[in-house]
Amino acid sequence: MKNNYRKLKFSILLQTVLVTALTVLVGGFILNYVIDGIYNDSFAKTFVRIMMDLNIEEQTAIDLYWRLIGNNKTFFMIVGFLLLFALFFYVALSKMTKYLDQVGEGIENILSDSTEPIHLITELKPIEIRLNEIKATLKRQELEAVEGEKKKNDLVVFLAHDLKTPLTSIVAYLTMLDSHPEMTDEEREKYIHVSLEKSIRLGELINEFFDITRYNLQDIELEPIEINLSMMLEQLADELYGVLQEKQLTCEVQVEENLVVYGDPDKLARVFDNLLRNAIAYCYDYTKIQISAQMKRGDIEIIFTNEGDKIPGTMLQTIFEKFYRVDGSRLSGTGGAGLGLAIAKEIVELHGGLIRAKSDDIKTQFIVTLPSKNMEEEGAADEVHTHRRRTFRSKSGRRKRVQQKQDTGDME
């Protein structure tokens, strides 16, 4: 920044030189043409005459003149030059203070709601640039604050709606059960099952509300241990078998054996559970969800793939923001407030990993990359053993071993 003020320093230096030169010229003129010039004798005679008017003898007045003035000409000359310099420099300062006035106007521009950019004189160009940057930053922060407040307000409305929907259904079905004791066992079982599903959904929404509060008030703390990622992903798919059945989906898990990471098992399980539930929520009925995991350049890459509507490229940039929903809807069947992916991103990054999304007209992929516990030995690894287990629509999953060549690219 020092070199950026070269013009300002040159301007101040030039004004100082001009003040000094003007002082020397005016002072020299007064010295040569007034003090030592034609007015020299007149000044001395005037001094003596004044002293004599005060009843002082002429010789005494002359001696007093030389003692006070004549022999101290150098002192008075220095004082005179300093006074002249101070006078001219004060006049020059009025121009210099215009710099401060302009900076003040720039600050007022920032504090006001003006949309006009700040313009300063050439010498203050660096300050102009900086003030405009500050103005843009404050404006952006203001817009972000307004957007954040809007999202929070929307969140309250959305949660109120989502909480009310299953609660209304629960009350309605329980009322029917209570008011119709003659109901058949088949109907009673049906209404009890629906009430249970709605109650579970209500519990999920309440837990999500607690998550929002907790993750806004405190940082996520990890309790890392050694985790067999292969087993975790297989277990996850098994646990969501019932959810898959609702949309008649299949889930294929294809992972390499003994993929080990060092991390918090509960937090990572939440990440993978969220990604799988997200894939289930936004995929087409009667399609297949794929989960794959493999070593890739020393890291472990986990990919969740589903067939569904394409996520536009602009939305892929914001999909991991808090309270963001791809579809923009509030249908209770497609999830909650949109906090899951934001929390998943934070958890993955705390583990030193990366999460990203890809989408085209055929499929959508969420790709998680985590550092492995130990670097896999390459060796003679032309072939690797994998676990492939499929969760079927009509029966529980089963596992079979296959041989597959190691794939170093994205899942097809």
Question: What would the principal axes of the Cα set say about the shape?
Answer: elongated
- Mean of residue pLDDT values: 77
Low-confidence stretches: 326-337, 375-412
Beta fraction: 15-25%
Number of helical stretches of at least 4 residues: 11
Number of strands: 9
CA-based gyration radius = 42 Å
Largest beta-sheet details: 7 strands, mixed
Distance between the termini: 52 Å
Oligomer: single chain
Helix content range? 55-70%
Structural class: alpha+beta
Largest beta sheet: strand ordering? 6-7-5-4-2-8-9
Order of helices and strands: HHHHHHEHHEEHEEHHEEEE
In brief:
With 412 residues, the chain is of the alpha+beta class. 56% of the residues lie in helices and 15% in strands. It has eleven helices and nine strands.
Notes on the protein architecture:
The chain has 412 residues and is α+β, with helices and mostly antiparallel strands. The protein has eleven helices and nine strands. It has helices at 6-35, 40-53, 58-68, 73-111, 125-179, 185-217, 229-239, 241-246, 265-282, 313-316, 340-350; strands at residues 225-228, 250-256, 260-263, 288-296, 299-306, 354-359, 364-371, 383-391, 398-405. It has a seven-stranded mixed β-sheet. It has a two-stranded antiparallel ribbon with strand order 1-3. A hairpin with a 6-residue loop joins strand 8 and strand 9. Helix 1 runs antiparallel to helix 4, helix 4 (73-111) runs parallel beside helix 5 (125-179) and helix 7 crosses helix 9 (265-282). The longest helix has 55 residues, at 125-179. 18% of the residues are buried. Residues 326-337 and 375-412 have low confidence and may be disordered.
